[in-house]
Model the fold of this input.
Amino acid sequence: MISSSTVAWVAILLVSLGAMIAASRMAVEHAQALVFGTRMPPFLVGVTFLAVGTDLPEIANSITASFAGHGDVNVGDSIGSTATQATLVLGLLPWLGGAMDATRKRVLLACGLCIIALAAGGWFVADGFLSRTDAAFLVMGWVLGSVIMWRWSGPSAEPALPVSPLRPARHAVMLLLALSGLAAAAVFSVLAFVKIADQIGVPEYLLTFFVSSLGTSLPELLVDVGALRRGLKDLALGDVLGSSFVDATLSIGIGPLLAPTLVDGSLGLRGALTTMGALACVGLILALRKSHDRLSGSLLIGVYAGVYLVLLR
Done:
């Protein structure tokens, strides 16, 4: 029987995740406004700037969990979010926002970089400890991978994003407020996950891989569906692919870079390998079809279900 204490922590968790989603959406909106109108192609804005913005919940969790000494919360959420965004979120987009072009070069490049990053991440966590050196390699991997995507993702068919009517200073202030709220919510979210995992006897890694990743991936789903409905298909595709790469590199690394932490090496490596396989399937499906519609979306949702079967068997 579930205790009243567990129920209370679940309630705190739900409120915290809701606050993180609201704060991250607010941060994304004002970050977008600071970048829009700079003549940068929408795909590149999505794969870098917007991807970091929608990944703020994972980044906040990484830092908070690492300082609290719960590395599995960071690694589980980051790798779980990589799998969730590249399969479930990307799979739902054609159903909720409409079909989009899936340029073979962009998809294979992004999926390939994610697989390489996960291979490195799996190697680093296998010994049960994420050091500052490991973390520095992951963060630098994000920088290098972003440069590669900027240079070799190909030209954009969509026009530059429109200029916001509000002054940049106001957007900057609102962005800082949103980030402050996000950080506060992340503290309570990590604490709740640790308490729930302890009380119900489920490893922190698995709980965050499957549960936390769903909550922290909601900003991508909400922002990208909105972008698709406004006709910004390149922006949406760039964000979901870029967010997966951010999760596999910057999100895992930023916390241990500040506070090195212990992790469950066996589960971390297993999750990384499973997610690498899922990303290979995603790249193959989209590269063969070239257009991402409801059929390919259904296949990606099936890949997400396969991740569950592999990790929980």
Observations:
- The longest strand covers residues 100-101.
- The chain has one domain: 4-312.
- Residues 4-312 form a domain with the A middle domain of Talin 1 fold (CATH 1.20.1420.30).
